[in-house]
Design a protein that fits this description.
Blueprint (H helix, E strand, L loop, with lengths): L1 H13 L3 H23 L5 H31 L1
Length: 77
């Protein structure tokens, strides 16, 4: 979670459009809520935990990719 927030900050600082930041933030929030709900259940439905982890990792990956693409676009232009 802290790494995802840090990567989102760096993406914003690099110039990522606010719309994409909002999408990443909503995906991160949904992922963490899904994971927490799955853990809270007595009979843990694994699909909610897995969905939450996948969304969180997608946010990590997309944020890092956005930072790299923004860096490359600024250095080549």
């Amino acid at each position: 979670m802290p790494l995802a927030l840090l990567l989102m900050f760096l993406a914003e600082y690099s110039g990522l459009a606010p719309l994409y930041l909002h999408i990443l933030g909503i995906a991160l929030l949904l992922g963490r809520l899904s994971h927490a709900w799955g853990v809270q259940q007595l009979k843990e439905p694994l699909k909610f935990r897995v969905f939450g982890m996948v969304l969180t990792f997608c946010v990590l990956l997309l944020s890092a990719l956005a930072i790299l693409l923004l860096y490359v676009s600024k250095t080549l232009l």
